[in-house]
Specification:
The protein has 414 residues and is of the alpha/beta class. It has eleven helices and 21 strands.
């Protein structure tokens, strides 16, 4: 779906160079065939567990067109803010198919979320008491539990760490159930998200086992949500979560628990984000400058950490390739930097790339998750456009910012 044909990079049915010339650069491009394939793969693997609720974690990519497309595949939407709830509803998502979980929410935001019928996972005792103090309360909620099981590709994303801000500790779980009962709310779901970019099924099973043990004490619990964070390959040698192995292990764990619980059943929910959208995205950017220093090719391109912050923030690897590659150009040790006035503004370091020239087009791959959604206008550089490729159709899903847009919310100084 994203591949070379006769030396030219194609995204879906379209040549990357043609898309860049038609829509300008920098440009985020998403191929929806990748998204459909990821959802189908996930659904097929998890079928061994039985009926599983899949919620797309829209913090990975919150463009309304992406959200609407994924919802159209029969996937619910997981949100982390009232703003994401608003975008999901405006994208046509049934509020009953929206899940909300956040470590911090205001009273007015809670009212908005509850009044719209969105499903809630409570992150703390304090949040639970806020809900109990409202005039209009949900009949049922979920509890986000911090089981102490943490995993992920970087310490910033290990949300299951017992010292993190995420979730109610196991020691406080029974207290939360008592508070909910006193204010007439049923706790129907136990939720836990342990991290992101996880490549091993074992921490998921450890986490699931702890949640099931807690559910054994509370018969009102009918659903277990094990979050997302399913790791993918950003380079060939990276480990990747085997979804089939995870599904089989989850199925066995739940089946064993059901036997010990006298046939009692629970429904499973998962909340992948990166797994669904990461591979769909490509960032196209032109080369602005090239020079050689210390035996290396130094390339400055239009996009830096203002458009893709993952390499700088997490030390993440993204493949960078030329949009046109005849295979005859000299291969050089290459560093690719962005245009920002920051020494740490880079996209890729120590890569083997063909000799590049000013005006060449390069593509940064696997940027469908945590790419544009984390972009900024730092250095007062406008945000890029976004387009979505669906079969034989190309659709603009975010217009390119201009200089005037940088001041659109700021009163003119006097």
């Amino acid at each position: 779906m994203i591949r070379y044909v006769d030396g030219a990079l194609y995204i879906g049915s379209y040549r990357a160079r043609d898309l860049a010339e038609r829509y300008g650069t920098p440009l985020y491009v998403y191929d929806t065939d990748h998204i459909s394939e990821a959802v189908a793969r996930l659904r097929g693997s998890l079928s061994i567990v039985g009926d599983v609720d899949i919620y797309y974690s829209m913090k990975a990519n919150s463009n309304p067109h992406i959200v609407r497309f994924i919802y159209g595949l029969g996937v619910g939407i997981e949100t982390t803010s009232a703003g994401e709830v608003y975008i999901a509803i405006e994208s046509g998502v049934d509020p009953g198919r929206i899940m909300f979980t956040s470590p911090g929410v205001s009273l007015s935001e809670l009212r908005y979320i509850i009044e719209n019928g969105v499903r809630i996972n409570v992150n703390s005792i304090g949040q639970l008491k806020m809900i109990c103090g409202l005039d209009t309360k949900p009949e049922a909620i979920g509890l986000r539990i911090n089981t102490g099981v943490a995993s992920g590709h970087h310490r910033y994303v290990a949300t299951g760490d017992p010292h993190s801000k995420f979730g109610i500790s196991l020691e406080d779980a029974d207290r939360a159930f008592r508070i909910a009962e006193e204010c007439g709310i049923t706790i129907e779901r136990l939720h836990s998200h342990i991290g992101s970019g996880i490549a091993d099924a074992e921490p998921y099973i450890e986490n699931l086992s702890i949640l099931l043990n807690l559910a054994s004490k509370h018969r009102g619990v009918t659903e277990i949500d094990i979050g997302g964070g399913f790791g993918i390959k950003y380079r060939d040698e990276d480990p990747e979560l085997n979804i089939d192995d995870l599904a089989e292990a989850v199925s066995k764990t739940i089946e064993s628990w059901m036997k010990r619980s006298g046939g009692r059943s629970v429904r499973l929910a998962v909340e992948p984000g990166r797994f669904i959208v990461a591979r769909s995205g490509v960032l196209l950017a032109r080369v602005l400058d090239v020079f050689h220093r210390g035996g290396r090719q130094v390339v400055i391109v239009e996009s830096g950490f203002n458009h893709l912050i993952r390499p700088v923030l997490y030390g993440s690897y993204h493949r960078v390739v030329p949009a046109e590659n005849s295979g005859s150009r000299e291969i050089l040790d290459t560093d690719i930097y962005g245009p920002l006035c920051e020494s740490g503004d880079y996209l890729a370091l120590s890569r083997k790339l063909p000799k590049l020239s000013v005006g060449d087009l390069v593509a940064v791959l696997d940027v469908g998750a945590y790419g544009m959604v984390m972009a900024s206008t730092y250095n007062s550089k406008p945000l890029p456009a976004e387009i979505m490729v669906s079969g034989g159709e190309v659709r603009v899903i975010r217009y390119r910012q201009g200089f005037r847009d940088l001041l659109s919310l700021i009163p003119k100084p006097r």
